[in-house]
Amino acid sequence: MNHSGKLDPSLAAYLKERVRWVDDTLERLLPPDLRPPRRLYEAMRYSLTAPGKRIRPVLLLAACEAVGGDARVALPAAAALEMVHAYSLVHDDLPAMDDDDMRRGRPSNHTVYGEAMAILAGDGLLTTAFEVLGSAQVETTVDAATRLAVLFDLAHAAGPGGMVGGQAADIEARGKGEVELPELEFIHTHKTGALIAAGLRMGARLGGGSEAQIEALTRYGRHIGLAFQIADDILDQAGESGEGEGPDGNQATYPALLGLATSRDHADALVERALMELEPFGTEAAPLRSLARYIVDRTH
Amino acid sequence: MNHSGKLDPSLAAYLKERVRWVDDTLERLLPPDLRPPRRLYEAMRYSLTAPGKRIRPVLLLAACEAVGGDARVALPAAAALEMVHAYSLVHDDLPAMDDDDMRRGRPSNHTVYGEAMAILAGDGLLTTAFEVLGSAQVETTVDAATRLAVLFDLAHAAGPGGMVGGQAADIEARGKGEVELPELEFIHTHKTGALIAAGLRMGARLGGGSEAQIEALTRYGRHIGLAFQIADDILDQAGESGEGEGPDGNQATYPALLGLATSRDHADALVERALMELEPFGTEAAPLRSLARYIVDRTH
């Protein structure tokens, strides 16, 4: 494995182009305008168009391409996925939740727009995601049954059986203090992993992948989703000089439970398992291979 | 018009049966169980299964029947609509929003489960609604294109162009004091009316209605949605001995702006317009006719 921590130049160009496609789609689907209530749309755009790596939508597009599909077909779904991610950040930052004043180097949504409008902006982003996926206005060559399946993938991954469930488990865990590994894994696989895996699944479906391909890419997504979260925990710990706390003052992190070295090994092993899932795929899966390696290379 | 304020006995029997169908469907779709995180499911069920009139899902079923459809086909959609309504109540009651400790005679969700879990329970109910509509597990004879259109109806009505937009406008209006009639109408048509109209539209679609029938029932829904809100304002004012305040300490009500008599006339006129939309329909629309009258009869 290449542990240079540098981004492969061809991957960098690939990412840049797809991030631009995603950003353009977000602008098109949620344009700045004067519709009332103006402040709601402003608050939604504030968090949705904040600069970000767009890792989830890019993985969705890469999955579509890995099965031989045209990424442009999957752009509305990629944008919807990013809307759901943005909503989750807005609600997570609320005073009653993680109480974060800052997000990506800018004041968090409720700090700027107030708590009530931030709750509504989150609700609005979540609902708009499903509006986009269900809309007849969104030009698409995809059949209705596939679109419905893609929509279900997203709803299931975002709901109580996925992201919302992981966040609820996290809140319950904090309330009781000590967290053990199975519980931490439940939190991470649900809070972060489910949405990432759903993106892979959605992309593979929209690209016309076979059931076997869809399942393989979903497993790839689960592995790198968890690896991504462990890597984030490691980077947070490194950034906070080994205080053993996550970004939310949370003790429940892999480095805190397993130590740095074992956490790194665990993340590496997950990436290897993700790469194994890609073995039946051809060169179309090259970006997914590079992305998997990139996730853990950041921690070395 | 019959202004007795009493419920027609055949309508009462009709409502009772359909409310039971809706309640059974909600139980089936969100059963009490021990899945983790248990407290999240408890919180979701607490608000979803609270006793209520189920007016929105019943209207949806009645619209399905008005176009000659079988109401049972529309039960998952009716349940999804009630989930979206329940989520909106949970989020509306939050301290940052209306700050209501009580709802339907019971402590509000956040009073029982805490603010963080209430936010997540609302998010979970909203997402589950779309999960239900998108699910392949939900037995249905409806084609995918119709299901996608129904899902879009709900998402659009719940989102920034509908309910969330109305709630945001309401919050902005409270911040600035004086509210005028066009603004109040915007708030009501979006905050309450959009979801009711969407239910009619969804039911008409699922029952196999023609485009003309779907549009007529949507207009019926808009009229009675606004009449329903005006009636609620009137009842609230009556209940609070003419203090001129809505249930949320809100000055923006029809009786406060127009007076009681004019508000009643306005509601009556809206019901007449709703009934006119039903003229092309046969006896299958009898429950919709009775329901329209029942809404304003409460205020006389």
Fold and architecture overview:
- Two copies of one chain form a homodimer.
- In chain A, α4 runs antiparallel to α9 (about 180-205).
- Chain A contains 13 helices and two strands.
- The first copy, chain A, is mostly helical and about 300 residues long.
- Chain A has a two-stranded antiparallel ribbon.
- Chain A starts with 8 loop residues before the first helix and ends with a helix.
- Chain A has one domain: Farnesyl Diphosphate Synthase (Orthogonal Bundle), CATH 1.10.600.10.
- Chain A is globular and about 55 Å long.
- Chains A and B meet through α2, α6, α7 and α8 of A and α2, α6, α7 and α8 of B.
Summarize the SSE layout with pairings.
2 copies of one chain form a homodimer.
Chain A: H1 9-29, H2 38-48, H3 55-66, H4 75-92, E1 102-103, E2 106-107, H5 109-113, H6 115-134, H7 144-158, H8 163-176, H9 181-206, H10 211-239, H11 254-258, H12 260-277, H13 286-297
Antiparallel strand pairs in A: 1-2
Helix pairs in contact in A: 1-4, 2-6, 3-4, 3-9, 3-13, 4-6, 4-9, 7-9, 8-9, 9-10, 10-12, 12-13
Describe the structure concisely for a colleague.
Chain A is mainly α and 300 residues long.
